[in-house]
Amino acid sequence: MMVSAQNITVKAVDQPASEVFRTIVEQTGKNFVYSSDLLKDLRVSVNIKKKPLKKALELMLKDTGIEYQIKGNNIILKKKAESETKSVEPEYPAVKSTPLSGTPKILDEVVVESRVGPSPTETAEVGALKLTASEITKVPTLFGETDVLKALQMQPGVSGGAEGMAGMHVHGGNSDENLCMLDNVPLYQVNHFAGLFSAFNANAINYIDFFKSSIPAKYDGRLSSFLDAKTKSGSREGHHGSFKLGLTSCDFNINGPIGKKTSYAVALRRSFYEVLTAPLSALFKDYKFEYAFMDFNGKITHRFNNRATGFVSLYFGDDLLIFKENTEEIITEPNRKGKFNLHWGNFLAQTGLNYRFKPELTGEFTAAYTRYFSRMKSDVYSWEQYGDELFDSRTITRTKNNINDWILRGDFYWQPEENHRVRFGAGYTLHSFQPGNTFRDNSIGTTTMTSRDSTWSYLGNEVNLYIEDDWSINDRWRINGGIHASLFNLSDKTHAGFGPRLSANYRLAKNWAIKGAYSRTVQYVHQLSQTYLSLPTDQWVPITGSFKPQTADKVAIGGNWRSDNGMFEASAEVYYKSMHNLVEYRDEYYLHPPTESWNSRLCSGSGTAKGLDLKIEKTGGKISGHIAYSLGWADRKFADKNDGKRYPARFDNRHTINILLNWNASKKVTVNAAWTGHSGNRFTFLPQVWSVPDTDPYGYQDFSPLKASINNYQLPFYHRLDLSVTVRNRRGYWNFGLYNAYCHLNTVAIIRDYSDETWAPVYKKVKMLPIIPSISYTWQF
What is the tens place of the pLDDT at every residue in 245-284? Predict the structure, then answer.
């Protein structure tokens, strides 16, 4: 489609240029590329209706000293005269940057897709964050696997949870209190390999929106945070892609046009841990371990005309874990053979239409299906031989759980006046839950007994409505107010949720702003987890029986500062969050018979979280990065846990420090360093045991721990340094990484053991993950 054929309508009176450009992005689908300080303090006034894009740009940039150039789907802005000799960096730099003179290699160098937005000093939100794919790749990670969630762990107020894992605990919340979405559609399992890697393939991600304090009215259903990962659309100018080969996985992505109006984007990632563990399996013949994961992203986008764009996208993530044991050749009684299979994953499919009804009103209509499933099977055969007599038994256990959502929704953006931006919409979700379905076959000799746990399937209906107005009252005041209303129906019971949202920005001066926010969120679905890792045994269940929806009320006050040249930013935030109707397993829930309902094993309680987040960031130049500090408290209280006494949350980390540095040493070499340190996680330490009556014929004495206060012990201070170096060449780039560069073994747990010399009981620290190198090569085409 020729640029001259694109007509746009823009009305603005003394507005920041970045906000006006965002309006153009929404109408044309074009991307803006410019230096971080180019639009500093630039405000424009324009009133055009159905004019060509070129004409609109000429009117807006007249007498500003800025010129534009349209290259394919990108609009490049640069200073007149100086632009031919000065190298600039985009506001959100990609993997590498080059001068915008001559003919830049746009697709690989400085593409910024639909990321034009105002400075944090101008917005009303508190604690909101946008990260591009290029910013995510700058965070060194375990095995060199670029990871969305681990990039967020470097932000203030976000805890990573267990050592090396891609977990996310925000402002004292649990992992299931974060709503992770792919193009506005929920994903219930966002981790591979117990949380070692996230399910988001960075090569398929364009950028992410993350909210932890000011929650837009559009989002609800969780208590702590909302992450929306926006996938890339294919280029309409040519075919491009890359292939990466690392120590533990490989990935391939390609995108390009299909005709003049259609584009595609495909990304595939696959691990090969089963190849790496093959030598270990050969060495230890009695035990074999195999694991593999893969994920696939696909998207087709079709532009019908200047008003309508449609898309279809797919995501599939899959994990398979196999463990085998055979103790026949080991001196044990009884002999044992076993095989354990765990299979889990996500599937997501959606189609949508973006339609511009008129210049000031646009809408997006979406139909989606998302599914999480897990299946486990164990087959254990044991036998003992006493003379001519054989005593054998076999136990086969099959367990599966899943959740399916069918979603219809419409989201609208309306700008009736230049200082009002209204967002509203509605959605319907049909939930299908099967939290657990277990079959057991127990055979002893020739006798077989089959049992099945008492399980229920649930069918739920959820309706959501929201509206919010982002109102720029004047140069100093900006307010965002809205409301999210919801209904959740399960069987014959219906719950209603009401979530008011309000945030405000008062600009003390040009580069200074004070902000405040209040939000209430409601959660109808929660995750039952027996550990702090992300495992396929975790089960998503709805609010049932006498339990009420979980709610959180959060108040935050903060401030933002930005330097005159736009190179430095700073933010501060204090918050208080009150959580109600939290659901967890009650103490000694495992003593309840399997025939009882889920509700009998659960209990309801409350929690609080409060703290301070600080961040100083350098956004451009040869050296960039940030320093973040968090001070936090988080606790829980349940009538049926810990004898009804309040106790600290598992990730009640008092102090957290994250330092991220990125150094563009040359045009070909980039060095990244990330240091993290935080107060140790909480741990339930069991200091006393009681002796089990001696019934073993061999005189073996067994012990059972005495009950202790939950999370009564704090592990030692955690700290780690990760490094990576990227070296580019004509065809792609090498990446060299070191996880835990100075090899500090952090304590992750305390276990009771026996002394090797005296066999006296001792307590030992469990430490994991020493220094781990990584190397990968990415070929770009």
Answer: 998 889 999 999 998 899 999 999 998 877 776 666 666 6
Q: How far apart are CA 99 and CA 109, in angstroms?
A: 9
Residues 236 and 259: their CA atoms lie apart, in Å, by 8
Side chain identity at residue 77, one-letter code: L
What are 278's two structure tokens? 């093959």
Q: Which of 72, 362, 128 is nearest to 240 (CA)?
A: 72
Distance of CA 399 to the CA centre of its chain: 27
pLDDT tens-digit map of 380-431: 888 777 767 777 888 888 888 889 999 999 999 999 988 899 999 999 999 9
φ, ψ dihedrals at 338, nearest 5°: -150, 150
Query: Which residues, at least 6 apart from 217, have a Cβ–Cβ distance to it below 8 Å?
Result: 423, 466, 467, 468, 482, 483, 484, 499, 501
Q: Which residues of the chain have pLDDT under 70?
A: 1-6, 13-14, 26, 29, 35-37, 40-41, 72-73, 81-117, 163-166, 194-195, 277-285, 327-334, 387, 453-456, 530-537, 590-598, 690-704, 759
Give the pairing of strands 191-192 and 197-198.
Answer: antiparallel
Handedness of CA 47, 49, 53, 55 (dihedral sign): negative
Q: What is the pTM of this model?
A: 0.82
Token representation of residue 395? 């136990």
User: Greatest CA span in the chain, whole angstroms?
Assistant: 101
Pairing of strands 74-79, 197-198: unpaired
